[in-house]
Each structure stands twice: as C-alpha cells, then as structure tokens.
Amino acid sequence: MTAAEPGARVPLGRSVRVRVPATSANLGPGFDTLGLALNVHDELEVTATEAGVRVDVTGVGAEGEHGVPTDETNLVARSLLHVLDRVGVEAPGLRITATNAIPHGRGMGSSGAAIVSGVLAAKGLLEGVVDVTDEDVLRWATELEGHPDNVAPAIFGGLTIAWVDETGPRHKQLAVHRGVSLLVAVPEATMSTSLARSLQPEAVPHADAVFNLSRSALLVAALTQSPELLFDATEDRLHQTYRASAMPETSALVRELRAAGHAAVVSGAGPSVLVLASDPAARLEAARIVEERPGGAAGGWHARLLAVDIRGGTVEPIPSSAVA
Q: Which residues make Cβ contacts (< 8 Å) with residue 241, sequence separation at least 6?
C-alpha cells in the first residue's frame, strides 16, 4: 500500500461496482484453513456523496426479521469505512445499492462476502488516491473477519489454502479439478457462527489432530488431482462432531449422505451441507437424497447445484454517465 497524501480525499461522485462470491470453508478436515468460492454472488454499487451513509438492499436481507442495517452500521459500510480509516483518507458520504443472493447464517460466507465487498469497494474508490494491493485487501478483510479461510476464496476465487504468519494473513490459490461437482443443501434454519465456534474444545486428542492433518493434505490432492479420493479426504474429527448438538438435522443429513457414499461435510459453521461429488451423476443422486429424505424439501432443505467461482471478488469503475 502506498500512503495517502495529506488531505487526500475520495472524489465526490466516483462510483464503483463490486461482485463477490459465496464461500464454503473448512471442507471437512481443513478447519480454518481451506475454502472454496461458489458461484452465488452479492453485488453492489457504491457512490461517494457529500455526507451520510444510505444502504438500499434488494434480495437477501432486504427486510423482515433478518433484514440488514441500512446505515453506517451495515457490515459493507463498516468494512469500507475501516479501510478509509486505515489509509488515512477522510470518509465521504456513501450511497450503497446492494443486490444480495448469498443466504445469511447458512455457512456460505455471507459475512465474509459483505466484508470483502466493502474492502473492494474502498479499493475502487481509492483508485489514484492510494495504491491498494491484493495483500492489503486480504489483510484488512482478515482484520474484520478474524480469520482468513472465508475471505481468501471470496477475494481470489477457486480453492484457497489460508494461513497466518508473522507478516499477516497469506493464501495460496489452486484450481479445482474439472471432475469435481458441487452441491449445497441449504436449510431454512440459520446458525450463529459464534455459537458454533463456542462449542469447539480448546484442545483435541493427538490422534485426532494427526487424523485431520492426513485428511486435509489428502483433500488438497483430491480437489486438484484425484476426485475419486474425495470421500476419504473429507473425514473429520476436529469440529463437526463437537458442533453436532447445535444442528442435529445437519448432522443427520451428513451421516445419511456419507452412508450412501457421498463426500458430505458441514459447510462453514453450518447449518448448510456441502457435497463434493466426483461426477455429475453422483451429485444428482445426492440431490435426490436431500429432497426426498423425511422432512426434506418439505422440512426446509433445498439442494442447490453449484460450481466453483474461479474469478473471486471484482471491482470496476462505473462511468459517470452511467450513474443515476
């Protein structure tokens, strides 16, 4: 990042368009490390105005019990303002128009996507004012999210391995084998990520740690080179069992799918279930199980056939002539 000049400001009227994918983190054994970008997206347009923050939302979170804030407390706005504060640029007013498609509270990275959206919007608004790098985007998004496993795939796309060293958060992006097919079973019920994390023990047995080390290493190979290994590679002993009591329907669906030979895991903190299929026919069979199980579609489970998003988050300027 290049430091801002004293008194630097975002030009009023500048507008950017941002598009950020959903994500699924953990992927079974890769707790707080592995993540996939999914082809479901939140989109927004942001314009620098004279004063105030106004957020207009359509789609997910637009209204009702799960409606998101429409002022400066909105997570996108807070993330954008966080970046401006970090670079020392005075915040302008903001008009944010968001079109949301990522389900909230379902383990598909909605909060991570909102944070990345705000950080990328700030990057776009700061074009020519402050030089913001991809590493800056990852660092600021991780500051806000607390860990990089969801924000890394939202930023960079594909399969990501994320870790933190003395320099801050880092990532490695990998291409997913074309033979891998994705299914996400999404329930009507939601799950608090903080509640899910509170169920984790502070220490785990040595044997379980070794077990997950082997499976997470195998999972990288399965996703990038050998999809036939996905079932074995998605076994986990570190987090899913401990969280099972908080989402019994999710745990039951994972067990049922795995009993039928499908590589099913909890998506993120849940309660959605991710299936990593080694061929399209297997994915359709898994979708049938989701929709036809007792209490399946009628009980609030919906099978979504998805693909890996390979682009990650994008930001582009909107020509002034196109701004309403």
A: none
Q: What are residue 147's phi and psi, to 5 degrees?
A: -155, 155
Look up residue 74 and give its two tokens: 């909105």
Task: Using DSSP bridges, classify how beta strands 314-317 and 264-266 pair: parallel, antiparallel or unpaired.
Answer: unpaired
Residue 123, CB-side half-sphere exposure with 13 Å CA sphere: 25
Which tokens sit at 131?
């030089």
For residue 271, whether the previous peptide bond is cis, meaning omega lies within 30 degrees of 0, is yes
As a whole number of angstroms, the distance between CA 31 and CA 151 comes to 14
Return the SS3 of 161: strand
pLDDT digits (tens, 9 = 90+) for 270-320: 999 999 999 999 999 999 999 987 654 445 799 999 999 999 999 999 987
Tokens of 5: 């000049």
- Residue 255's identity, in one-letter code, is R
Residues facing residue 121 across a β-bridge: none
**What's the half-sphere exposure (Cβ side, CA atoms, 13 Å) at 191?**
28
Nearest by Cα to 24 from 207, 159, 126: 159
